[in-house]
Every structure is written in C-alpha cells, then in structure tokens.
Amino acid sequence: MYSGYILVEAGFVLNNLLLFNLLIFAIANFFLVLRLQGEERLLKEDKAYQAYAQKTRWKLMPLLF
Q1: Phi-psi category of 62—alpha, beta or left, where left has phi over 0 and alpha has psi -120 to 50?
Q2: pLDDT tens readout for residues 2-56
Q3: Left if phi > 0, otherwise alpha if psi is -120 to 50, otherwise beta: which for 2?
C-alpha cells in the first residue's frame, strides 16, 4: 500500500516537476516512513507477524527500505 502511494506521488512529481512538488514529496515520504516504523513496532508484538517479518527482507521497496 505504501509503495503504491510513493509510486503515484512520484508520477505526479515527474509530471509536474517543480521544486515545491519535490519538497512536498520528500516531506510526505518522511512522515510515511515514520508511520511505517510505528506500525512495525506495534505489529512486532504479534508472534505471527514476527515470523512473517523474518521471512520478508524489505519493508517498503526492494533495495531501498
């Protein structure tokens, strides 16, 4: 889901290339990563999620995060 957000936002920024749009994109994704980390902390309390997380290498996008 978060990867989809980033792809859509990146498409908008590339189509409307302005410094302001790049800044908003960076800020939005910074907060998205903070949200992802908070959810990850909460979900890691569940044993089933811990097993899933051990098998899944990347959280957001391969080779990035």
Answers
A1: beta
A2: 888 999 999 999 999 999 999 999 999 999 999 999 999 999 999 999 999 888 8
A3: alpha
Q: What is the pTM of this model?
A: 0.76
Q: Is 3 exposed, middle or buried (0-12, 13-18, 19+ CB in 10 A)?
A: middle
Euclidean distance between CA atoms 47 and 4, whole angstroms: 27
Task: Render 1-65 in DSSP notation, one character per residue.
Answer: -HHHHHHHHHHHHHHT--HHHHHHHHHHHHHHHHHHHHHHHHHTTSHHHHHHHHH---SSSTTT-
Do 37 and 60 contact (CB within 8 A), yes or no? Answer: no
